[in-house]
Amino acid sequence: MAAFGPETGAVGWDWRVNGACREDGIDWDVFFTPSGRESATACRRREADAKSLCATCPVIRQCREHAETFGEKHGIWGGLTVDELAALSSRIRSA
Ligand code: SF4
Questions:
Q1: Ligand 1: which atom is nearest the Cα of residue 59?
Q2: 80 lines ligand 1 (CB under 6 A)
Q3: Which ranges carry the 4Fe-4S Wbl-type domain (predicted)?
Q4: Residue 90 falls inside a structural domain
Q5: Ligand 1, atom 3: nearest CA belongs to which residue?
Q6: Is 1 domain-assigned?
Q7: Total domains in the fold of the chain
Q8: pLDDT tens digit string along 20-34?
Q9: Alpha helices (runs of H) in the chain, residue ranges in sequence order
């Protein structure tokens, strides 16, 4: 989510200023697959680091809702990968 934010003028982004990932010193790279090759082990570690931060985030619900609403295709949002978000949305729709 590093490429977005209230400063871009996007509507409905107010919640983001309270995200745990907005705190100083946070490495936003953990939220996205790096360009180039990433081993499965490195991917698991990176995603676990991102999810650990999300687990402490006061706006985790809003972040997840945003990703679902806008169909985010990359990254960790609301403590879930986009594949996990898609699977969750699918289960909810079929329930
Ligand atoms: S849930 Fe995770 S990605 Fe979303 S704002 Fe919070 S820390 Fe950032």
A1: 6
A2: no
A3: 20-87
A4: yes
A5: 77
A6: no
A7: 1
A8: 999 999 999 999 999
A9: 40-54, 60-70, 82-94
